[in-house]
Design brief:
This protein is of the alpha/beta class and 255 residues long. It has 2 domains: 8-39, no CATH class; 47-254, Alpha-Beta Barrel (TIM Barrel), CATH 3.20.20. It is 43% helix and 15% strand. It contains 10 helices and 11 strands. The protein has helices at 8-26, 31-39, 68-77, 88-93, 95-103, 123-141, 157-165, 185-195, 211-224, 232-235, and strands spanning 47-48, 54-61, 83-86, 107-110, 147-148, 169-170, 175-176, 200-205, 228-229, 241-243, 248-251. Strands 2, 3, 4, 7, 8 and 9 form a 6-stranded parallel sheet that branches. Helix 6 (123-141) crosses helix 7. The longest helix has 19 residues, at 8-26. The radius of gyration is 22 Å and the shape is globular.
């Protein structure tokens, strides 16, 4: 009788296959039921389905402030509006920059009050982080934010439910410049240009080493390609929408 030896990897694969058979066969769990469970997970808005050549440039501000005015000047040069997600402590430290951003016509939005990992907080803790930052921004700009970007991009059903209860929208991104890694201007430029499409939300940071240089070239190239730079508020659908499993937002009438 021939003895068959199985590697550890093969044993793991066999066990996984048997487990799937048990779940979908013995206990009668249908594929549709499994998909229903998956659909229970709430998602932020990563990008938007649109035929218009709209792109939303966004900047997270949590720490330094050395290039904010340069970003404002570069955006003005290309007649571009952007969305700035500000941490409450940054607002406390740099109120004049908040005023400058608002005066320049950019959208000022919420990035939490103290930049915590939001899913680790209670719902009340989440609400406090959001409302405190909202109030700090409102006192300076006379506008209450309607959008929030969770710190570190971390979210949970509880967070999105809390945001929804406050009448706000949770925003992520589908194009990451990775400028916080101090990539060169060429690397940032290539990452963004090669990934942008209609309805993209692009992530940058203020106080990143090479973002101002890259931004000027990105704006020039995308303008030539026919893109219009809009705020996230203008880009997203506010009502009658769906979000698919990738985080893309769709107008429900078109689904």
């Amino acid at each position: 009788m021939k003895t068959i030896f199985l590697s550890k990897k093969k044993l793991v694969l066999i066990c996984c296959a048997l487990l799937l058979l048990v779940l979908f066969g013995v206990f009668g769990i249908s594929r549709g039921a499994a998909e229903t469970v998956a659909e229970m997970r709430l998602l932020p808005i990563y990008c938007v389905d649109t035929q218009k050549k709209y792109v939303a440039l966004t900047f997270d501000a949590a720490w330094g402030n050395e290039d904010t005015q340069q970003l404002i000047d570069t955006l003005k040069k290309h007649n571009a509006k952007a969305t700035f997600f500000l941490v409450g402590s940054w607002v406390d430290k740099y109120p004049e920059s908040v005023r400058a951003l608002s005066k320049a016509g950019h959208s000022i939005q919420n990035h939490s009050d103290t930049h915590p990992n939001m899913p680790q907080l209670s719902k009340e803790g989440m609400r406090q982080e959001i409302t405190l930052c909202n109030e700090k921004i409102r006192r300076i700009t006379n506008k209450t934010p309607s959008l929030i970007r969770p710190p570190f991009g971390d979210y949970s059903n509880s967070l999105i439910e809390t945001v929804n209860d406050l009448g706000m929208y949770t925003i992520q991104w589908d194009v990451d410049s990775l400028d916080w890694k101090d990539l060169s201007a060429d690397e940032i430029y290539n990452r963004v240009i090669n990934k942008v499409q209609n309805g993209s939300i692009v992530l940058f940071h203020n106080a990143a080493l090479n973002t101002p240089e890259a931004l000027d070239r990105i704006l020039e190239t995308l303008t030539k390609e026919g893109y219009e730079f809009v705020t996230v508020e203008k880009l997203i659908y506010k009502t009658n929408y769906t979000i698919d499993h990738t985080g893309k937002q769709f107008n429900a009438d078109n689904c």
